Amino acid sequence: MPKESLCIKVPKIHGEKTLVLTKKFAAADKELKIQRNTDFIYVPLVRQLQETELKALTEEVSDFQLSTCIFQEKEKSVKTLAELLETKLPPYLLASLPRSVDIVGDIAIIEIPPELSAHKRTIGEAALKSHGKVSTVLAKASAVSGTYRVREFEVIAGQSKTETVHKEHGCRYCIDLAKVYFSPRLSYEHKRVASLIQEGETIVDLFAGVGPFSVLIAKNNPAVRVYSVDLNPHAIELLKRNIRLNRVEGRVYPILGEARQVVKERLSGIADRLIMNLPEKAMEFVETACEAIKPKGGTVHIYSFTGASESLESMKLRFADAVKDCGRSVERILFSRNVRETAPYKWQAVLDAKIR
After folding, report:
1. pLDDT digits (tens, 9 = 90+) for 181-190
2. Exposed e or buried b for every residue in 330-341, given b needs 16+ CB within 10 A?
């Protein structure tokens, strides 16, 4: 918003000296943008300069003028959640504030620890202010559980909804957080795997959800076929919408059904590449993966958990043993890493493996 203010008009050649001095005097108005034209700059002031300050300015810059000018206000920086709550919560509770907030579309998701439950509405309102494009704040009300890997949420601020459209790597995804599993923390993995696809590949996305792997792969690689399998009918319906939304019809084929049965009946021996993002149970489906991969071999991206009881190295060994039990072998591990921490000393990890 434009605002008239007292200012110093000075030739551009003396602009830097003037800025240094006005900051030293604590006289520069930090909320207004400095104005410039071809010859001069205009430095907004919060007050009249004192005689001693004018003298010091004259010694450094002889050809300045005190004037008034119309200035634009600077965009105010958005305060963090902790900054917004520092005067609203007891100091001993500030240390318990969530370290991170997940943003899915225009929905913020927060995990409220028990000691902060009485303040969840206050925290929700602060989250709305600290994330300008957010219209709803959800608090996690349960762990991820059940056949469809969903959790319960409680609306603690903003609009009462769980549906949104999430943007990621140039794609848009319709999501209902109450009905399907989705994690924005896997964004890098979606992009990484999509970047590995070769022209003409056939991919099986065994636990596809709303399609963050499938749709991005098809969007970036026109000459592929992606078979996207999921047991959750809500996920498949949203996947169909996302296929249309991102114009990848004829490249992504959604299939509702149990992974083992679908592969046995429809997808046996067709895959150059297979994605298994079901970390709780993916190791139980290694036989299904081996059945889906082409007889000549292919690549598997498998997500599982590591932690105090199982390291990344032991995950590799367990996977290799499971593949061997299926009559195949791991030619080599192409890539491995811990993707994200899911609990203290527990991580979601990924292996890329070449199967023969």
Report:
1. 999 999 999 9
2. beeeeebebbee
Can you give the pLDDT at residue 310?
A: 81
75-132 pLDDT, tens digit per residue, is 766 678 888 998 899 888 998 998 889 999 999 999 999 999 999 999 999 999 988 8
Show me where the domains of the chain are located.
Answer: 2-72, 81-161, 182-355
Separation CA 139–CA 110 (nearest Å):
5
Distance CA 152, CA 162 (A): 10
**Which residues are bridge partners to 306 per DSSP?**
347
Structure token digits, residue 284 = 């139980």
Tokens in use for 19?
A: 């800025």
**43, 34 Cβ separation under 8 angstroms:** yes
Question: Which two three-digit tokens encode residue 249?
Answer: 């019809």
Which residues does residue 145 pair with via DSSP β-bridges, in sequence order?
150
Question: Position 209: which residue type?
Answer: G
d(CA 76, CA 62): 34
Domain boundaries 182-355, corresponding CATH code: 3.40.50.150
Give the CA distances from residue 43 to residues 63, 192, 328, in Å, rounded to whole numbers and listed in that order. Answer: 14, 47, 73
Q: What is the DSSP string of 15-84?
A: HHHHHHHHHHTT-B-TTBPPEE-SSEEEEEBSSPPPHHHHHHHHHH-SS-EEEEEEEEBPPPPPPPHHHH
CB 130 within 8 A of CB 158: no
Q: What would be the CATH architecture of the domain defined by 81-161? A: 2-Layer Sandwich (3.30)
CA atoms of 155 and 254, how far apart (whole Å) = 31
pTM to 2 decimal places:
0.77
- pLDDT at res. 77: 65
Topology of domain 2-72, CATH: Alpha-Beta Plaits (3.30.70)
CA distance linking residue 278 with residue 284, whole number of Å: 10
- Regions of the chain with pLDDT less than 50: none
